[in-house]
Design goal:
With 159 residues, the chain is an alpha/beta fold. Helix content is 50%, strand content 15%.
């Protein structure tokens, strides 16, 4: 299976959102010419996210999404067929952001999935203006691809 969703705490109700996140992940893989690759989506809570954020980034606060890539350097640009890594999403943060943005939870989860997925591929919006612009353009392209497939993403087109 190219995209696996883990939710050990069962924070996300069983049903179509789980299936749609995995299906959207498969679309992302195809759109980025990684159809033979795979990655994991993990749904966690704010407390777990804060622990990860501190352990790996030194930030003692929660965040909405983290990505742990398993590929580096030239592999990012050329490989297909490998484990790309893990996209970790805080369900509580996603709920807050959906509420504050005025959109549905699934739309926010899709936005966070795209954002985290691009980090797996080496995009980094914190590495300067040009890299941020490149990442946000890639986000918009993937939002459009998901939209064409019937998935709606929360869009912050303020970048």
């Amino acid at each position: 299976m190219p995209v696996e969703l883990t939710d050990r705490a069962r924070l996300l109700r069983a049903g179509k959102t789980r299936d749609r996140l995995c299906a959207a992940g498969e679309i992302l893989l195809r759109e980025c010419r990684r159809a033979k690759s795979h990655f994991t989506i993990a749904i966690i809570d704010d407390e777990q996210m804060a622990l990860l954020n501190f352990a790996y980034r030194g930030n003692n606060v929660t965040t909405d999404v983290l990505a742990f890539s398993q590929v580096e350097g030239e592999e990012i640009a050329s490989g297909d067929g490998e484990n790309l890594g893990d996209v970790i999403i805080s369900l509580q943060a996603a709920r807050r952001q959906a509420r504050d943005g005025g959109w549905k939870l699934e739309q926010e989860l899709m936005r966070l999935l795209v954002h985290g997925f691009l980090h797996l591929l080496g995009h980094d919006h914190e590495a300067g203006k040009r890299k941020a612009e490149r990442m946000f353009a890639a986000e918009r392209r993937l939002f459009d691809a998901l939209g064409a497939a019937g998935y709606s993403c929360a869009r912050e087109d303020l970048h």
